[in-house]
Amino acid sequence: MLPLKKVIDSPVQVDVRLAELLLPTRPTWTDSVREGTALALACTLNDPKGFAALSAWAKITRALRERTVPDRAKRTEVEGQAATLFKDAGISIIVAAGNEYTGRNTEFDPATRGNKGVVTKGALFDPGATLADDNEEFAKFLSEASKRVYENSVQAYAGTTTYILLYYIDADNGEIRFELSRPSLNGLRDGVIRTWVERILFPPIEIGAGTVVVVDDVDPAHQVVVSRKA
Length: 230
Description:
Order of helices and strands: EHHHEEEEHHHHEEEEEEE
Structural class: alpha+beta
Shape: globular
Helix content: 25-40%
Distance between the termini: 24 Å
Number of domains: 1
Number of helices: 7
Low-confidence stretches: 217-228
Strand content: 15-25%
Mean pLDDT: 82
Radius of gyration: 17 Å
């Protein structure tokens, strides 16, 4: 078995790592992202605000499930958050949009673009810690309602490891970059996941130069958050 390393970007090594994790082969992920982003790429400014982003997230999730459920995976919905649980691997996959560093092995790590909350925090929970020990500052400011949601998420994701299927549509370079990455336990800060234990980078999907991409869903503050590699 290969030693765990933070970034895996060679197609051969990606194939090996997916097999080690008991996850589907590379074409499953590539085809799911390609199919899932097709509707978003067809959007124009006449579509309702936010539809392009919503459709990409929803359709990638659907495409992955249709290729893997029920034989290898099952659908899960935790407090409104869609995930795909690969039963033999014990791995839950959550789809999320990433920033421009998604799918690139550079000095900067990628970050999620939308706000992530207590449900995602619960998915990253360390089973060896208590709520307060996991992140005292985070827990201290939770309302009773939010604390219940967090604890429900912790319970729902217990016994699994969470990976994020990050994707980024890069109109300037005519490609969709994506990766399957495991956040660090304290990787979620200020609503953004920005530190990672492991990143599995896939070859990009070409969409053609000059493709017009509608991006209208992201708080600009989240588009410039970067984190240098440790």
